[in-house]
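Q: Hi! First time doing this. I have a protein sequence and I read that you can turn it into a structure. Is that right? Here it is:
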Amino acid sequence: MPRTKNPALIAWKKLQWVLLAASVAVVVVVAAPAATKPALNLSLKGSVKGVAVGGKVQFGSVTCAPLTGKGLQIIWSGQAKVGTGLKQVSGDMHFTTTGKSTFGPRGKATASLVVAGNYSGRLASGVPGGSGTGTVAANRKSGTLNVRVAAGASKVQETGRWTC
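A: Yes, that's right. Below is the predicted 3D structure, encoded as structure tokens:
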């Protein structure tokens, strides 16, 4: 086919290529999976200094920070029922690897819980009374938690899952 020097035909061919490229870009954007929104689905059950702590953590937020190797730190916060009202709760989890991990005085993973901003009364998994298990997905974007944190007579079970 001979090449044409007709400016209108050349413009038409360029427009066809632009439209084709734009339609491919739209298909790629529409077909791309949506980014996963960070989510916290965590329940608490126990008591802190004789006051009941329980129920699902509401208005939860979660932040994840990859660590050296396959490690991951998760920092979370929200509100939960403490006594007769909702109070601020927050905590963190530290995993050294993906897969299943254990918590407790001899565990390689750690967790802590702060209730109503009382950092001096922080509960932890690495003390007597602390125990449990957790998992981190191979891509370090989600995991599960079933751990007991303690501080003296105060003990709270944290159960649930999170997504980064």
